Amino acid sequence: MDDTLRADVETLWDYHHLHHEPRPTDVGVGLGSHDLGVATYTAELYHARRFPLVVFTGANAPTTVDLFPRGEAVHFREHAIARGVPATAIRLEPHATNTGENITFTRRLLQDHDIRSVTLVSRPYQQRRAYATCRKLWPEVDVVCAAQPHTLDEHIRSIGDADRVINMLVGDTQRITRYAERGFAIPQPMPAAVRAALHRLIAAGFTKRLL
């Protein structure tokens, strides 16, 4: 990755990190994706007593069907159980195919629980979009966003595909404004430097995840 490209990727990477202060919440929601590190970190937070209840949410997308043929939530649940999270502490939401459905279906699943606060566990660069979506679709809960505390290089190594990570970063950044415009999420500020980095990466050909 040349220096100019790296600077723009780092700009987007930093933008999506919300740096929320960790605090106890009523439930931890692991958002399904291609990144099994979400399940790993959800298990770590459960053992750290950040929440007593876990929901894994997610069906499949074209980017995950080969990795998790029985569905993202199912595989995440098994991964967490293998890391010591009791099966009785986990609820499964296996139908969602996007972040809006992750939030909506999880809210429905927990409607008989007194949920006032939620920790959303996601890919590192999904934090801002997950937060904006939850604030729109589940506005009555207090939201904390969390992700594995990886650097960009550590995350790329864990995924094993820099091109994929950059394309996902570009797509998630575009969705911040597009989804707010469509009423799927609350608006989020986007500094001029972030917009400029996004446009340069699109011009460089990182367009696979654009809407």
Radius of gyration: 16 Å
Enumerate the strands of the largest sheet in spatial order, edge to edge or round the barrel.
Answer: 3-2-1-4-5
CATH topology of the largest domain: Rossmann fold
Which term fits the overall shape? globular
Helix/strand structural class: alpha/beta
Largest sheet report? 5 strands, parallel
User: Unreliable runs, pLDDT <50, ≥5 residues?
Assistant: none
| Helix proportion | 40-55%
* Through-space gap between termini: 25 Å
- Strand percentage lies at 5-15%
Quick one: how many beta strands?
A: 5
Q: Give me the CATH architecture of the largest domain, please.
A: 3-Layer(aba) Sandwich
CATH superfamily of the largest domain: HUPs
- The top level CATH class name of the largest domain: Alpha Beta
Domain DUF218: 38-144
Tags for this entry?
single chain; 211 residues; Rossmann fold; 2 domains; 46% helix; globular
Q: How would you briefly describe this protein structure?
A:
The chain has 211 residues and is α/β, with parallel strands linked by helices. The protein is built from eight helices and five strands; from the N terminus they run αβαβαβαβαβααα.
How would you characterize the overall build of this protein?
The chain is an alpha/beta fold. It has two domains: 3-14 and 152-203, no CATH class; 19-146, HUPs (Rossmann fold), CATH 3.40.50. It contains eight helices and five strands; from the N terminus they run H-E-H-E-H-E-H-E-H-E-H-H-H. It has helices at 3-16, 37-47, 72-82, 99-109, 127-137, 152-159, 162-181, 192-203, and strands spanning 27-31, 54-57, 90-93, 117-121, 142-146. It has a five-stranded parallel β-sheet, sandwiched between helices. Strand 2, helix 3 and strand 3 form a beta-alpha-beta unit. The longest helix has 20 residues, at 162-181. The protein is globular, with a radius of gyration of 16 Å.
